[in-house]
Structures are given as C-alpha cells and as structure tokens.
Amino acid sequence: MTVLRNSLRSFLSHKGRMLLSAIAVLLSVAFVCGTLVFTDTMNATFDKLFASTSADVTVSPKEKEGAEGTEGAGQSGTGKPATLPAEALAKTARADGVRSADGVVTSSSVTVVNDANENMGSTTGAPTIAGNWNDHERAYMEITSGHAPRGPTEIMVDADTAEKHHLRLGDELRTIAATGERTAKISGIAAFEVTNPGAAVVYFDTGTAQEFLLGDTGAYTGIAVAADSNVTHELLKRNVQRALGGPDAFTYETQEETAASSADDMGSFLDVMKYAMLGFAGIALLVGVFLIVNTFSMLVAQRTREIGLMRALGSSRKQVNRSVLVEALLLGVIGSVLGVGAGVGLAVGLMELMGGMGMELNTSELTVKFTTPVIGLLLGILVTVLAAYLPARRAGKISPMAALRDAGTPADGRASVLRGVLGVLLAGAGATALVLAARVDEASEGALFLGLGVLLSLVGFVVVGPLLAGVLVRGLSLIVLRLFGPVGRLAERNALRNPRRTGATGAALMIGLALVACLSVVGSSMVASATEELDKSVGADFIVESNSGQLITPDAAERMRDIPELAHLTDYRVVPAEVRTAEGERTGAKDLIAASPTYAEDLRVETVAGELADAYDRDSMSVDQAFARKHDLGVGDTLSVGFEKGETARLTVRAITSSDGTVDRGAFYTSTATAQKYLPQGELPLNLIMFGSAKDGQEDAAYAALKEAMEPYPQYQVRDQADFKQNLRDQVGQMLNMVYGLLALAIVVAILGVVNTLALSIVERTREIGLMRAIGLSRRQLRRMVRLESVVIALFGALLGLGLGMGWGATAQRLLALEGLTVLEIPWSTISLVFAGSALVGLVAALVPAFRAGRMNVLRAIATE
C-alpha cells in the first residue's frame, strides 16, 4: 500500500507533465479502437445486407472455370450478364419444397443519368444496379411512394439515390446499357429495410428488364427460390438440383452460402483497409513509446535525490522499481480508457468520411464488440508499462548516496559505448540488406530484403541516435543557431546536454518523416516512370475510357466514329481465351487484346522479334517475350487459341514483344477481325478503352468534338496525353495524401514528444534558468533559446528521417524497376518543404514551454533544488 500511495502522490504531483504522454496513449489507442469499430460496423452492415437480400436458394449460371474477365464487364466482356433459360424457372417452381421461385434479372454494367446528364451512381464506390421488380425484391424493399414499374416507360429508384439527387415521381431517368439506352419516368421510390451502403438501384418490370438488359425475353440472370415451411435450405438446394438436371448444370447456393461468398468478396477489401490502418496505428504507438520512455527517464532523473532518500529510509530496489511502474500503469489506464471512448468517435468520423466518398454507413448500426475495448485497454496499458520499464529499472539502481548529490544521474559511459556499437552494427546490417534488395533479379525476393533492411536500419538509427545527435546537432548549429549569437550557443549546449534524450526525441519524429520521404520518392518515381513510358510508347492523341472500368457501349463508340476530325479511332477489346502450344500443352487462360491495326501506331511497343503490325494480319497474333522463352516460341510458330464462347483457332505468332515497359506489359495482341471470325454473333467484347488520333492540324477541333460527342455519357472521360498524365499524377497524389494523413497521427505524437521533452527539461533546469535570468538574460532571449533548442531537435529528427526514407524509397524504386518503372526521381521540393516544415514544427512545439520558462519568478527559480 505504501508503494501505491507514493505512486499516486507522485503521479498527481506530476499530472501536468504526464498529460502529453497520456494524450499520446489516447491517440494511439483511439486509432486502434476506431479502426476496429469502423471495420466491424462495415462488416455488420454488409452481413445484414447480404443476409436480407439472399434468397433461401439461389440458382445462377455456371461460371467457366479458370476464365479471366474484366470487372463489371459482364459475360465475356459483352456488357451483358450471363443468363440461364426461362425453362429453368418453370422446372424450379415445380421442385419439391419450393414455395415460390422468382426469375431475377440484374446487371451492374449500366449507367443511370438524370435530365441534367448527372450520373446517379458513384464513380468510385458502390455500383449502379438495374434489375426487375419481383416478389423476392419485396422481401427487403418497401415502396414508399408511387408504384412499381408497369411498362417500358416507367422506372423505380431506391430512396437513398432519390434523396441524394433530389429525384421525384415523374422525373425522367436515362439508363445506358450495352444493349442501348432507355428513357423512363420515375413511377415509384422504394426503400431498403436494411442499410444500403451506397449502391444506386433502379427497377424495370420483368419484360422490359429482360429485353433491355439481356436482349433476350426468354432468359434470366438467376432464380430466387423460397422454401416451404419445415424445409431446410440444404434440402431445398438438393431438390432444385435434382429438378434442373444435377449439380453441374448451374450454380446453386443456399442463403448462408450466398451471404458468405458475398461477404468474402467484400471482406478482402475491408481486411486490406483494416490492417493498413492498424499498421499506421502501430507506427503511432511506436512513436508514443519514445515519448513515454523520455517522460519517465526525465522524471526519474529529476527525482534522483528523492529516490535516494527513499532508499536511505529503507525502500528496496523492487519497491522503487514498482513505484515507477505503478505510475506508468495509472498513465496507461487513464490514456487507454479515454482512447477507447475517442476511438468510437473516430469511427463515427470515418463513417461520415466514407459517406462523402459514396459508401453510406448508418451510425445507428455502430458495432462495438466486447473485444474492441479489451484490445484497446490491454494494448495501451502494456505499451505504457513496457516503455516505462527501463526508466523504472534505472530508478531501482539509484543508491542512497544519491540523496547527497544534485538532481540528475550521471551517464553510464560503458552503456553508451555498447549502445553505439550495437546501433552501428544494426544500421550496417540494414544498409547491407537494402543493397542486396536493390541488386536482386526477382521482385518477391527483393521485397524480403527490403523489409529486413527497413526494419534493421530503423532500429539501428534509433539505437545509434544519441551518438549521431552529438555530430548532427553541432553541424546544424553551425548553420542555424550560430546566427543568434550567445543565445544560439546556449540552445546548442542544451540540445547536446543529454544526447540520449535528444536522440530519443528526434527518433520519434524520424520514424514518421522517414515513411513520408520513402513514399514521396516511390510516388514521384512511379509518376516519372509512367510519364516517360507514355511519352515513349503512346502515339495516340486521345484516350477514352471509364475511371470505374465500365465498357464503352456501341452507341458511344459509334458517336466517336462519326467525328470527321479524327484520322483514325482504335478499338481495344479484352477477349478471354485459352492458349495451347502446337503440341497441345496448356498454358492457361489468357486475355488477348483484340485491337484495330492502327493500335500499332497508337502504342509503340518494342519487339524482340518480328513486327507488331504483322500481328494484326489475318489469323495472326503476338506473344510476350517471357511467354515465348518459357514455351520456346519463335516468329512463325503456331498456337491453338480457344476463344471463350467461340471456336478454337490456330494463330501464327508474327511478333514477340519486349517484357520491358509498363504499358500493356505481357499483353498478347491480335486483330479485332480475327477475334470476330471465331466468336459467334454478338459475343465480341465491347471496347474497354479507345484511342484516337487527329488529322494534321485539327488536334484542338478533334479534342473538342470528342468531348462534345461523349457529353451524353458522363461515365466516360476523354483525355489527351497531357490530361492523362495529370490524371496519373492526381491519382498518385490522392493516394499519397491519404497515407500522409494517416502518418500525421504519428507525427502529431512525435510533436507532443518534443513539447514534453522541452517542458520537462525546463523544469529540470529551473535553477539554472533562474541564475541566467539573474545575470542578465532577458525573457525574450530565454524564450528564443528554448525555441531554438526545439528547432534544432526537430531538424535533427527530420535530417535522420528524410535521409533514411530516401534510402528506403530509392531501394523500393529498384524493385519497381523490375516491373518496368525504371525512373528514380527524388522529389526535392517535397523533401525541402518537409525539412522546412520540421523547423516550423519545432517552433510551434516550443511555444508553451518557452512561454512558461519566460514567466518563471527569478528568486523562486534560484531557490529551487
């Protein structure tokens, strides 16, 4: 009890000094708990949606095993979904145990626009879905106004989309599909009985949906089967299989299986988001460890005489050690409890943010599992106690004779030497691993060396930080501090007074800035490499595509073909096929690029054998260099190509393309005419992307004409090469900004560490400050000294972090070079801005400590022991 009372008394007497450490624990725990609550809520929302929208048994067309398709492209890239015959619905309805069977028509390869040509769906989030209104839909949708569609001129829309876009009954919507376009008036609005995470949903009557979405009034995309009472889903599934000719005829799933497979598809995306965010939370926790270690180290140093008196009065080493750890426990408990609460608030904020990006989540379904606060509390408390262990151990070693000395413990010279040697060895090992990563020939092997190099070099720099502080701080001082005369020299000496403390404070900032620098180098190199590749390879003036991967409808393509200012317009279609060698060896499913012969002009692909233009001749193709080596192929050899839904062709290899470069890397080319020859009517895939070149001197006119032609189709973007490069830069920039935003948490915690170090350092130097004030140092000079000390510590951390990060980024770029991204670009403007921003961070961090130092009473400060 005595230990607990002493710990409580000490904790309360230093509660102001503990505040920033508690905030660091709070932020880290909040990010962990917020991530868990947010992802658990998303999982729960989708689980409810999938469970409520899944029929007791669902029958769907059999997918071809091993086929590769384009997301959102429908069956074989035609823009139309796979179907099953209407006869299957009648047979299903007669199966034992079936209460009802509804023919379902649904397609996500559609775009819905209003009369202002505004896209009603999200271009980055959930899909736009068109389907038929049937009894199965009534199980989870309720018509809140109007009525269901009764003919080809009527359409019904979901309530969330209607509210978001201010749609009312009678408004006209135009639906664009691969089979054409249809304009209809809104006859009704239906609301989901569970949360709709953001999909825009429209309904037609069944006949219209079949004709418009499938082009076949005798087909459905699936059958939703409801069971009689007392009939299990598994029994119903077996009965339906028997009625439809066995398990191989179609795909059959119970409600549980459908919901689970849908959840699995969504779960992979959620897991990536979850673990990425937890990774950033882990970085913030790591940075928080430095703050806590520094806080307790300084508190122990300041209480040296007090601890020495406790030892002289009979306290054992274990009691002193335990006293410090109890303080850490109190800090961890308070910070973690507050962090759990803040995490719930953070989750709500993330849900609002996702709402702005097109994914709607209802806060009424906020899911806080029992394990979330437990994980948060355990993590916060364990990290805090473990971080305080070394300072507590040092406190236990203080002898009773320390009661006769001034506050502060002398540095252990032997420990410092050992620490320096260990740090140099670890940093050297990390550098070696990075060099090996840059020299490998396989990216997977290099990734292992890169990860090891990052870890070892980071730990090495943290360990050797105090040794580097003595060198780098002096160097920085020559450039920054000596300009301020005696005050600058005082700030330099203060920063060098305790290299271990300066090293730990700088290391906290180093971690976040190293990651910022690394990602900046990688992002800039990716953009520079892609831009160089575009300049070198792409000869087309214009590129037309959809950001969401939607195929270009025949109507849209036809409008572009009618533009007189274009010299040519190139088709680019992805055709699923299976390729075999002449000896019958299976090489697996491949996506052939079926393009117009002008694509050889639009994309200047380097060949190692033959001419690419010849690959667009009749019954000809090209293969990639790596594929040719693997199967010992040369120009003139023949391959057997089995087109999905079509015939098997024997195509002659006319060109072998280089495996270098990034655009269409590894692609197999053939002509649109060749693909059309072996595919049945209507099965030629739609264009995934189209390229155009203007007639001489008509570039501006052609660009304007393309823009005008595509205006009715907001799902497509028309870009010239400058637009395309800017879009690439914007995409990489958005990704980096999101990562920088997450890393900001670690940097904020590091800033708190600088504030805490300065605040505790000022308390430690109270008597010294009083004496300096007594001999003539003004308040203004004192505040400047503190600010300069803070600036040099921040710049020290920035110098280490940016240097380390650029090394990591350069190594990562060497691995990307194996994938064709060959340009290394150091974003010096970003690096310089971050370095200068670090000085600003140091100034801001010093504001409160400098203000408090300046307000000290001189006589009281001198009298302080």
TrEMBL record:
One GO CC term, this protein: plasma membrane
Disordered as annotated region, ranges: 57-82
Coiled coil (UniProt feature): none
Membrane topology field: Multi-pass membrane protein
ABC3 transporter permease C-terminal domain ranges (all copies): 280-400, 742-857
Major subcellular site: membrane
Entry keyword Cell membrane: yes
Transmembrane segments: 275-301, 324-350, 370-392, 421-440, 446-473, 507-528, 738-763, 788-808, 828-851
One Pfam assignment: FtsX
GO MF annotation terms: transmembrane transporter activity
Alphabetic keyword roster: Cell membrane, Membrane, Transmembrane, Transmembrane helix
Localization in the cell: Cell membrane
Domain MacB-like periplasmic core intervals: 19-242, 505-707
Family annotation (InterPro entries): ABC3_permease_C (IPR003838), MacB_PCD (IPR025857), Macrolide_Exporter_MacB (IPR050250)
Record carries keyword Chloroplast: no
Record-linked PANTHER family: ABC TRANSPORTER PERMEASE YTRF, MEMBRANE COMPONENT OF TRANSPORTER-RELATED
Family: Belongs to the ABC-4 integral membrane protein family.
Name of the featured protein: ABC transporter permease
The species this protein was found in: Streptomyces oceani
